[in-house]
Design goal:
Layout (H helix, E strand, L loop, with lengths): L2 H24 L1 E8 L11 E5 L4 E5 L5 E7 L1 E8 L4 E2 L5 E3 L4 E6 L1 E3 L15 E7 L7 E7 L16 E4 L2 E4 L2 E5 L4 E11 L7 E9 L4 E4 L3 E4 L1
Parallel strand pairs: 1-8
Antiparallel strand pairs: 1-4, 2-3, 2-5, 5-7, 6-9, 10-11, 11-12, 12-13, 13-15, 14-15, 15-16, 16-17, 17-18
Length: 225
Amino acid sequence: MGRFARLLILLIATGFLAFSGEAVQAGTATLEGQALDYNNRPVPGGQVQLVSRMHYYTTTADAQGRFKFQVPADFYSLRMSTADSLFYQRAPMALGRGRTVFVTVRPVFRPSQPANAPLLPDPKIHYRSFPVQGPSQLGAVLRTTEHPEGEPLSFFSQDYPMLSYDTLAVYAPEIEMNRFTNVCTATGGVVIELGTDLAPRHATRAVIDLNHRRISIDGRESFSF
């Protein structure tokens, strides 16, 4: 093989490798998160798992409860636990190419049981999943918690119902869902966390149209998510 042919092959191979590296980098997504309690205090040291059909990643939250993943674009489920708390397992989310998503995870409950006892699901907490129309085929999850009749909930507590869909999480004392339209109405003091926002939004009432990915806040502001 002549010198020119060898040089040409080397240039082609080098160019292919460089292109492949760029393609891999462009095909990744970044997930940044923080574990907080319901007083917005960091929860350090939790084990965080990010799982898809093809990938499994795990890391440990730092002293500020923060964690970060850079992963191939895919649909992922996020789970987290600490030695004495189970954290919610939110609905799957789409991590697209070149996308950076911010999420907050909060404990579902802190059971009153002996140290080192196995963590079991709380029978008072119920999860209901349902399909949502759209090209991503993602589903939504509504978490509800049983509490004594007539007993008021403290503001933004772990007993709040929670709606999660993709990178959206909504907390409110009352969340009603229309199963035919997939329109959810949250009332009584609403906390809205979006993967594109660094800080939560607050409202008295929010209407979430999951099929069309639209949120209306207090009847005066409407935006896509």
